[in-house]
Amino acid sequence: MLNRDAQLSAKIFADDIEQTPTRDGFGTGVVEAGRADSRVVVLCADLAESTRAEWFQKEFPDRFIELGVAEQNMAAVAAGMAAAGKIPFIASYAAFNPGRNYEQIRTTIVLNQMPVKICGMHAGVSVGPDGATHQMLEDIGMMRMLPGMTVIAPCDAEEARKAVITAATTDGPVYIRFGRAPTPVFTTGGTPFQIGKALTLFESESPQVAILSTGSLSYTALVAACALSEENIESIVLHIPTIKPLDIEAVLGVVRRAGRVVTVEEHQIAGGFGSAIAEFLAEQHPVPVRRLGIQDQFGQSGEPNELLEHYGLDALHIENAVRALFKMAY
Amino acid sequence: MILTDEQVHALEKKAESIRETIIQMLVAAGSGHTAGSLGMADIVTAFYFHILNHDPKRPDWEERDRFVLSNGHICPVLYATLAHAGYFSKEECLTLRKFGSRLQGHPERMRLSGLETTSGPLGEGLSQAAGMAYAFHMDQLKDTTCPSSDDGHVVSFNHGRRVYCVMSDGEQEEGNTWEAAMFAGKNKLHNLTAVIDRNNIQIDGMTEDVMPLEPIVDKYRAFNWHVLEVNGNDIPAFIAAVDEAKAIYEKPTLIVAHTVPGKGVHDIEFDYRWHGKPPTAEEGKRFMKEIRTMSGKVPHEYA
Asked: Which of A59, A167, A227, B152 is the most exposed place for a label (fewest CB within 10 A)?
C-alpha cells in the first residue's frame, strides 16, 4: 500500500492528475530561492524559455545573466561569481551542461569547491522528437564520479522545486537533473524532501522484490508495483532522488527485507543510478539485481511515451522484470 | 603614478630574488615549468609589490583585488612571489610538487590560502575572472541604489575592487578563452584587466608555427576590448599600462605583455624546450649565478 507518511497526492491514480515537466519545478523553485537570498543568480546559455530560467529573469532581471551559446564559459563564469560571493544556478540542456562543459565543472567548480548549482535540462529519452543528440543519458554517471558532488534526480515538478530551494542553501556544488516532458505531479507540499534521503512510496506486508528508482520513472515504478500487488507479487518501491550521497540505510533496509532488487532509471545502466546501487550492494549486501535503464545505446526521435516503451521503461517492462526476479529461485 | 628610481630598483631586485627562488624550487621539485615562470617574474612582482590592493596576513579579506592565474603551470612564479610577499615562508617553496605539499604541481585554491582559484587546464581563467568582475559590478550597482546613497553619491565599499587575469599566449588557442572575451566585451567589464604573457612559445614549438595567434591585438579589439602592448619585462612600463587600464571606463583592458621566456638566464631565453622542464642541480647553480651576475645589468629605460 501507499506510504501515508509520504503524503502523496490524493489524485495519485486519477486520470486528471496534474501533468507538469520537472523543469517547471526549476522555474518555480529558483524564483523562490531568489526571493529568499539575494545572492542567488541564474546563468543561462540561450535557452531561457525552455529551461524556465526566464521565470527568474522576469522577477530578477538584474540577477539573470545571459551567456549566449557558450556552456563552457557559463560554468567557469559561475565559478568566478561564486568566488565573489554569489550562489549561481547554471541552466542548459544536460547534453551540454554537463555534457559539453564537464572539464570546467570538474576543475573550476568541484575541485575548486564553488557552490555552483548545475541544472541539466531535457535529460533522458523522454525529450522526444529532438532525438539522440539532445537526449542526455550519461549525466548521472559523469556527475556522480566527481568527488564531493551532490547528484539529484527529482521525481516530479514539486520535488524538483524543493530540490532547487534546498540546493541554494547547501554548501558546495550540486547537480540536478530535469526532464522536458510533462509527468504526473504525485508528491505534495507535505511530502518530505531532504538531500541524501530516500522516500518509500509503496510497501507490501512482506515484499519479495525491492524496486529502487530515481527521477520521474519513480511514478511508473509505483504504477507497476500496484499492478503487481493485484497478482499477489509483493514489492516495495523506494524512490531515491539523491543518487549521491546515497541513502545507504534506506537501501539496506528495503533490500534486507525484500532480498531482490530491480533498479529503474532514464539513463545508461552503466555508470548511473543502477550502477550506484549495484556497486554498493555488491560490497555490502550481495543480492540479485536487475537494472532497467538504457542498455548501452543512444536514443532516437519519437514521442516520449513510445520511446520509454521502446527502451523498456514503461510500467509493463518494470512488471515483467519484477515477475522474472520474483520467480527466480535462489 | 610615476615610480621613483628607488622604487623601480627595489622592484627589480625583488624580481631577481623571486627568480632565484624559482630556480631553487624547480631544482628541488625535479619537474615543473621554467621558461614561463622566469619570464613572468617581473609582472607578478609588479602585481604583488605594487599594483594589487591585498594583505598577506588576511588572504580572505573581502576588499582585496583578485589575481587569477589562468595558466596554472607557471605557478612557481606565483608561489615564489606569494612567499616573498609574506603569505607563507620561503622555505615552504622547496616543497613544490612534493607529497603532502600545499604547493601542488598546478595551483589548488583549497590547499593554499592566497590563491584565488584552481587552475592548470587552460582557457578557463578569463571566464572565472570575468565572473568575479561581473559579480563585483552587480554589487556596486546594488549599492548605488541603497538608501544611504539617495543623493546619487556612490557609497559602495567595494568601489575599487579590481580583477586581474594572467593568461598564456598558448591558451588563446582554447575556444573557452574567446567565449570569455566575448562575455567581458559585451558586459563592458572595466574592472577586469587581462594580461597575455606573449612569450611566443608553447610545448610543441613557437605559437605561430603550432597555431598562429596573430593579429592578437586586433582580435581582442574586435571583441570590444581596450588593448595595450608593453615590454613585459619592463616593470615601470607594465605598471603604467595597468594604470591606463584603470582609467578606461567603457571596456575591459587587455595588456599584451611581450616577455622573454626564461628571462634572466641567457642560455635558455627563447628556447621552447624549457617550457616544461626544470634545471638539474648543476644547471640550477649556473642559472643562479647568472641571475646574480646580470643583476643591475638588465637595461631599462629609467635606469
From this structure: B152
Residue percentage of chain B with pLDDT more than 90? 86
Query: What are A214-244's pLDDT values in tens digits?
Result: 999 999 999 999 999 999 999 999 999 999 9
Instruction: Select the residue from A67, A72, A77, A89 to test the B interface by mutation, using most B Cβ atoms within 10 A.
Output: A77
pLDDT of B294 reads: 73
- Across residues B175-204, what is the average pLDDT? 97
Residues in chain B whose beta carbon is closer than 8 A to a beta carbon of chain A? 66, 68, 108-110, 116-121, 124, 127-136, 138-139, 141-142, 175-176, 179-180, 182-183
Q: Give the range of the structural domain holding residue A266, as residue numbers without chain letter.
A: 4-15+192-327
Asked if A85 is an interface residue toward chain B (Cβ–Cβ < 8 A), one would say yes
Is this prediction's pTM over 0.90?
A: yes
Mutant choice from B179, B187, B191 vs A, greatest count of A C-beta within 10 A: B179
> Measuring CA to CA, which residue among B201, B228, B233 is closest to residue B216?
B228
- CA B44-B137-B111 angle, 5° bins: 45
**Is A65 in the B-facing interface, judged by CB distances under 8 Å?**
yes
**Residues A263 and A231 reside in one and the same domain:** yes
Question: What is the count of structural domains for chain A?
Answer: 2
**B85/chain A closest Cα distance in angstroms:** 23
CA separation for the pair B6, B215 (Å, rounded): 37
